[in-house]
Amino acid sequence: MRKIPTIFVRDWDGDPKHVTSVRNPECAWVFAGEGIATRKYDGTCVMFDGERWWARREVKPGKATPAGFVLVEEDGETGKRVGWEPIAQSGFAKFHAEALAAADRPGEAPSVWAPGTYELCGPKINRNPERAETHVLIRHALAERVEVPSPTFDGICEVVRRLAAEAGAEGIVWHHPDGRMAKIKARDFPGNGH
């Protein structure tokens, strides 16, 4: 999974944890009303390639990559390498196994997992902002749609903060029909307390 661009430009000269109200030109299509907005779940990204499960992994500059790491891209701003590592060696292996086991109910045919990316959420993932009772896998392709009535800085900020407060959502991901994606997280906004 390639890094998804953030819809507003980061404040690289001041506080790079937060965004400014300047629209990212790479994401102009979002502000033009193209694409579909969906909930960004707050867990950890995993992928099923049709045969094997993988965990998303970021490797900081100067650190060694784990065995079996598949590089997807290197972030030019931070120097981080982003890619996939086999799920079995990741720190999330146990929780992923619990999610798979819960989905395969005794006495029924095993679940059929579609190739693609999923969000692993649950009690032991990121302090459980999604408030899941057990570990679960949520397919990104089936993410809950979000209504964004005003595609402005303030309008988007309001929707994202409401989703975070009411449902523990991490933010919003927009999906363009041509495959492009764009995102914003609640913690990207200044004064959000994160």
Map the helices and strands.
Blueprint: E1 8-10, E2 19-23, H1 28-31, E3 36-40, E4 44-48, E5 53-59, E6 70-74, E7 81-86, H2 93-103, E8 116-121, E9 136-139, H3 153-167, E10 171-175, E11 181-185
Protein name: ATP dependent DNA ligase domain-containing protein
Can you tag this structure with a few keywords?
single chain; 194 residues; alpha+beta; six-stranded antiparallel beta sheet; three-stranded antiparallel beta sheet; 11 strands; ATP dependent DNA ligase domain-containing protein
Structure description:
It comes from Thermomonospora echinospora. This is ATP dependent DNA ligase domain-containing protein. There is one protein chain. By secondary structure, this protein is α+β, with helices and mostly antiparallel strands. It has two domains: 1-41 and 143-194, no CATH class; 44-141, no CATH class. Helix content is 15%, strand content 29%. The protein contains three helices and eleven strands. It has helices at 28-31, 93-103, 153-167; strands at 8-10, 19-23, 36-40, 44-48, 53-59, 70-74, 81-86, 116-121, 136-139, 171-175, 181-185. The chain has a six-stranded antiparallel beta sheet with strand order 6-7-5-4-8-9, with helices on one face. The protein has a three-stranded antiparallel beta sheet with strand order 3-10-11. Strands 1-2 form a two-stranded antiparallel sheet. The radius of gyration is 17 Å and the shape is globular. 26% of the residues are buried. The mean pLDDT is 91.
